[in-house]
Amino acid sequence: MSVVAELIRTEDSGALSFGNYELAEKAKKEDYECAGSFYKVKTFKEITKLERDGMFVYESVPGTCVHDFNLGASGVDFTVSGSEDAQITVGLKEDTEYEIFVGGNSTGKMKTNLGGKLSFGVELEGNGEVPVSIRL
What we know:
- This protein is mostly beta strands.
- The chain is 0% helix and 60% strand.
- Strand 7 (65-72) and strand 8 form a beta hairpin.
- The radius of gyration is 14 Å and the shape is globular.
- The relative contact order is 0.18.
């Protein structure tokens, strides 16, 4: 899976792809419009962060590349890649339990905090791209 050279783009399906973990210095793109919302992405080798209409959506440490990011009422789906294992945080409904699937396998259920954030780790080093699905 290649990085997103333009930092953020909309796929034919309407899903977003964003992030470039190969950058040595921070890069950002603001006011990217998709489906009536405005997105801001900041990315480089140490972190990738996505906001929608000024609100937190996604963060990874270190930086990652995300393809086909689709956030819906029942959860989120995306494929992630990076040069090393990453800690990922996504913004969902607050105080809600979700089941996390990484690479097609359930890693268990977790509850979001009062801010709606859910954090989990993904083993990326040597794995190429890894599908992630988070479901109610």
